[in-house]
Design a protein that fits this description.
CATH topology of the largest domain: Rossmann fold
Helix content: 40-55%
Strand order of the largest sheet: 2-1-3-4-5-6
Number of domains: 2
Distance between the termini: 39 Å
CATH architecture of the largest domain: 3-Layer(aba) Sandwich
Order of helices and strands: EHEHEHEHEHEHHHHH
Radius of gyration: 21 Å
CATH class of the largest domain: Alpha Beta
Strand content: 5-15%
Length: about 210
């Protein structure tokens, strides 16, 4: 029997999941939580195989809770079930090492399949998530191919943060001339007509990411 803990702050959604999973002969929902703190408390008091967690929750979000779970409860597997399909969030989820990521827009069969696969030791990401990961990898390869240096990457990040050339020069302990030269070279390398286009290029190619909470 696969023992599941559900964590989501939407009661109707949780009730729907419980109704779905209790129809499976090999799955038992042993506990539910409405935020990350409650989820951690449940793991102290219940025998759980898999945590099925949302990302956006009050008090403590699912990502912060997942990081703690993966360290403190190494035998518990974590599946994120979320509506988010943004690059920054998906990259963070994969980076921390969760065992699965399924979008809430997916179907019931996929969720049940994910639980079963993860329980047997596999990692599973929904088709939409894998497509995004493939795009991230392709963009990174393109970025690597144009040979932008580490210093230029730092300059791009500061440009995206809205700093002037003088401010960037002060932060990186460079001359304004050096920063301006790098800025011009970056425009040429990335085939950007202006700074706005350069910023768009940086976000599109994952040189910098929008905040997970934005």
């Amino acid at each position: 029997m696969i023992k599941v803990l559900i964590a989501d702050d939407h009661k109707i959604f949780v009730d729907g999941l419980i109704s779905l999973l209790t129809r499976e002969h090999n799955i038992s929902v042993v506990a539910k939580a409405h935020n990350g703190i409650e989820m951690l408390d449940c793991l102290e008091n219940y025998d759980v195989d898999i945590v099925l967690s949302d990302i956006n929750m009050p008090v403590m979000d699912g990502l912060k809770a997942a990081k703690i779970i993966l360290k403190k409860f190494p035998n518990v597997k974590v599946i994120m079930l979320s509506m988010h399909n943004r690059n920054a969030i998906i990259k963070e989820v994969v980076k921390i090492g969760v065992h699965g990521y399924v979008l809430k827009s997916g179907d019931n069969a996929e969720l049940v399949n994910t639980i079963n696969k993860v329980f047997t030791g596999e990692r599973y990401y929904s088709f939409e998530v894998k497509k995004i990961l493939d795009n991230i990898a392709d963009n990174k390869k393109h970025f690597d191919d144009i040979l932008i240096s580490k210093k230029e990457q730092r300059i791009i990040k500061h440009i995206c943060d809205g700093f002037t050339s003088k401010e960037i020069a002060d932060i990186l302990n460079l001359s304004i001339y050096t920063v301006e030269t790098h800025r011009k070279n970056l425009l040429i390398k990335t085939k950007s007509k202006n700074v706005v286009a350069l910023v768009n290029y940086a976000y599109k190619n994952n040189i910098v990411d929008y905040s997970v909470n934005s």
